[in-house]
Structure formats: C-alpha cells, structure tokens
Q: What sequence folds into this?
C-alpha cells in the first residue's frame, strides 16, 4: 500500500507522517484540524477492507478499546471511514516503544522493569474486566511516553470473551516470542494467556533478551509449549528470588499453576517492587512513580524515608530554609553560587522577586523538526545537570550553515507548566543567534510554525546570556532555545546550562 501522507480524512484528520505498518493497516501521526491536536491514526489497507472478516476484526478493535478508559491504555478518540477505507483515531503518545527501550539499554534496572510490569498488568486488568483479551502482549505494543509511563496499545487481534467467530480453530495469533503454550497450540485463550506473555516481557526487561530462539516462528512457539524458561537468576543474579518466582509462576505451562487473575499477579509484583527497592535502597525511573501508588501492604516493606515522604520533606524543608539563608548571604558576596544535582538556579538574577524553577535531571530534549538523526539527543540532559563543565551541542555543519534547515535547538521541560520570567543560557560558542520559544502542556509541537510561541530573540549569544521572558502570564511546559545562526567561523553551537526563573 502506498503512503497516504498529506491525505485529509473526512475533511478533518491530516496524515502527516507514517510511523508504523503491518499486514492489515498502517499507522500515521496525524493532525486533528478541528480540535487542533496531534493524534495517531490506524488506516486499514484498502485491499484488506474488502475482506469482511478482516473488516469486522478492525472494527472490533475500535469497539474494544473504546470501552477502556485507563491511564495505561492508549485510548480511542474516534473511528470512521473515508472513501471506503476504515480508520481508528487514537491518542498520540510521544516517546518510544518498550522494545526500543530494551534495544537501547539492554537489561533495564530491576525496579524499573517491575514498575513497567505493574503498569502493563494494570492495563490488562482493565481490559480483562471488560471481557477483552489482548492476545498480542509484547514490548512492541507498549509505548513509553515522555514522562516514562507505560501505555498498552494495538488491540488489533484482541477478542471479546462475549463474542464468537473470526478466529479459526488451530490458528495461532500473536508474536511467537511471547506466545502462551495454549495459544501456540491453537486452543482457546483467556486472560491467563495475556499474563503468560507479560511474564515473558518481564523476563526480557530483566535479561535483555527473549527466552527462546529458533530457526523459525514455529520452532520458537514449540519451545514455549515444551521447554521451561531459562532461570532468570542465572542471567540477572542481582534480582531477588521472590521476583524470579513471580516470573516462573506467570510463565507456568499449566494453567492451574499460572496466575489465575490479574489481581494476584499485580499484588505479587507490588510486593516485589517494594522488596527490590528496599534491597537497593533507592528507586529510579518509573519505579519512583509507581511506588507512590503501592497499597499499604506493599509500602510497609519500603525504607522509612520512602514510606513517610511527607515527614521527610518537612525535615528537609527546615534544613533547606537554613541552607537558603546561608546561600542568600553568600550570593551577596559572589555571583556564582553552588551547583546542585538538579538545575535549580542558585545565583539568582538581581531582578526583584524572581524565583528559580526546578528542572528534572532529564527534563531536556534536542529539537530537529527538519529531519536527520537529531541533534545529539543523548547529550540533551547535560543542559539541566547543574554542571557547567558538561554541555550539549548541535551537529557539526560544514561551511557554517545549517544545511537548509530553518533551525535546530534544545528545549527544557517544566513540570508543572509555568509562566517563566527569565531564562539564562550558558554557552562556550559565543556569537550565535536565534530565539526562545515556548509551548503549553501536551506533546511538544512538531514544527516551529505550529504550536510554538516566540518569546524573545537571541541576537548575539554571550558566554552567559540572560533574557527577560514575556509570556503574558501564560503557563508553558516547554521552553525552546532555537538556533538559526551559527557563530562567526563556527560549525556548531554548544550549550552547557539552561536555567529558568519565574
């Protein structure tokens, strides 16, 4: 099927870019011209739409997911047909798939892997409560958004337990790397089949690889039927035996030995997250967010400082107040304050009533809407690490021009959104030019012309450039340093720190 980028579906949805494709449909990033927001659209292949069974399967997905309203499920917004071609409109999730994350990092931190398993299990539990079995649980069908939250998507072969038909006996659906034994044998599947697949996904997050390999998909499927999964502790010795037992029970071949319900699996995973956090003494990534949602029975296993964060924060606030007084006195004698591990401006501008805005340690992202492979995305966090000796830089542009690009840049993320009044940019490549733009909460705009509001020009960047920002008291989540002119004789721009005040 040829790409339909540029098509306007039913006079409303403009297809902007293809972001995925399968045997039945193609997924596009699109723009809803009525509500002026980005969406994702799954467009059924025209030649497949003539098959009544496949058409009903496609419509079933829309009906199935439309029933679900859950923070860890990618929601359906709309569905329709355009010139005989059916489509489904989903919320657009900016980020990456869990599979991409595993490929990028290999083995995930134990706490993070368990946290994602909890979020996926909660999503599946919501589907199962509506009598919907996903049937294709795999990391490719889990999206990780910009905040690090997992969202389950692609219920394309999901089946309602209250409906009959469409799945011939003996037909194996799903990806065989994660397929349950009963599904591999073409038997009826239920919620326990999804839990088996989730157990395999958890195994992969912990070990960096799927449990079985074979010459073809059938060979792999038969290993799920006949062979026990490798011992997770042999591949990830630092994991607890409790976690290993959860993986074993989730991936048991016999249904009577496997978890009987989502609730049972979630309860054990919540206990494991608390145990793993207590063993390591810390929580990172998405584990930090999931820990806040644990029930009291699991939280009792956490260290005291994690169980009673409010008390700890009060104590820290008292200490912080004393430290703040000392820093203010010190700031009167020197322009340079001490740098912390977060990008909280310590040498406040001399303008009255300015309050520093705290930015997370990963709250920055490169911005290259004109294409290419990005502008050193792995360096982006260095502009908010509080260290003047580290820096992010653009790509190198020969001849001192941006290769016909309107610009490139880097933005910082303020959570929650805030009406910033001043920005400070530290750079080792003086003399470049551009502007500061801002955008509200939601996904970051895909082009400089759509969604970004220009706040102030950067005419001739100095080693430290401080600029007043007039946001009209509007809270913005994204603040973009947009580079349009390279420094004289230079071929790139480096930025060591970006700081905001309100």
A:
């Amino acid at each position: 099927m040829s790409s339909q980028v540029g098509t306007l579906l039913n006079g409303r949805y403009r297809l902007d870019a293809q972001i995925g494709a399968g045997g039945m449909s193609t997924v596009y990033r699109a723009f809803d011209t009525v509500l002026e927001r980005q969406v994702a659209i799954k467009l059924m292949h025209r030649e497949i739409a003539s098959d009544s069974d496949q058409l009903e399967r496609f419509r079933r997905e829309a009906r199935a997911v439309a029933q679900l309203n859950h923070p860890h499920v990618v929601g359906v917004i709309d569905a329709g047909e355009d010139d005989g071609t059916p489509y489904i409109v989903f919320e657009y999730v900016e980020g990456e798939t869990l599979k991409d994350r595993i490929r990028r990092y290999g083995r995930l931190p134990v706490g993070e892997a368990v946290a994602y398993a909890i979020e996926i299990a909660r999503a599946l539990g919501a589907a199962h409560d509506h009598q919907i079995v996903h049937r294709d649980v795999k990391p490719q069908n889990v999206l990780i958004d910009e905040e690090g939250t997992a969202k389950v998507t692609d219920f394309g072969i999901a089946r309602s337990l209250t409906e009959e038909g469409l799945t011939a006996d003996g037909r194996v659906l799903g990806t065989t790397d994660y397929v349950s034994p009963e599904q591999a044998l073409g038997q009826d599947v239920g919620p326990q089949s999804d839990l088996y697949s989730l157990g395999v996904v958890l195994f992969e997050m912990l070990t960096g690889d799927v449990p079985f390999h074979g010459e073809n998909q059938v060979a792999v499927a038969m290993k799920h039927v006949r062979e026990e999964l490798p011992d997770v502790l042999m591949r990830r010795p630092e994991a607890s035996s409790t976690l290993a037992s959860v993986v074993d029970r989730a991936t048991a071949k016999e249904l009577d030995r496997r978890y009987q319900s989502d609730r049972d699996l979630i309860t054990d995973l919540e206990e494991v997250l608390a145990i793993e956090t207590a063993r390591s003494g810390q929580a990172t990534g998405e584990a930090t967010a999931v820990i806040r949602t644990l029930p009291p029975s699991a939280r009792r296993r956490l260290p005291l400082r994690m169980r009673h964060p409010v008390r700890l924060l009060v104590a820290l606030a008292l200490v912080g107040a004393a430290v703040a007084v000392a820093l203010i006195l010190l700031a009167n004698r020197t322009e340079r304050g001490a740098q912390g591990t977060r990008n909280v401006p310590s040498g406040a501008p001399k303008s009255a009533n300015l309050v520093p805005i705290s930015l997370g340690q990963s709250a920055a992202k490169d911005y290259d809407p004109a294409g290419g492979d990005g502008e050193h995305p792995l360096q982006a966090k260095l502009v908010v690490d509080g260290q003047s000796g580290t820096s992010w830089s653009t790509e190198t542009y020969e001849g001192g021009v941006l290769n016909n690009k309107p610009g490139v840049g880097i933005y910082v993320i303020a959570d929650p959104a805030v009406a910033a009044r001043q920005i400070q940019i530290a750079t080792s490549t003086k003399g470049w030019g551009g502007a500061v733009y801002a955008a509200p909460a939601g996904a970051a705009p895909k082009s400089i012309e759509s969604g970004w509001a220009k706040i102030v020009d950067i005419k001739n960047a100095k080693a430290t450039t401080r600029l007043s920002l007039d946001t009209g008291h509007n809270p913005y989540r994204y603040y973009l340093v947009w580079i349009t002119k390279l420094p004289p004789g230079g071929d790139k721009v480096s930025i060591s720190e970006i700081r905001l005040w309100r």
Observations:
- The first strand starts at residue 8 and ends at 9.
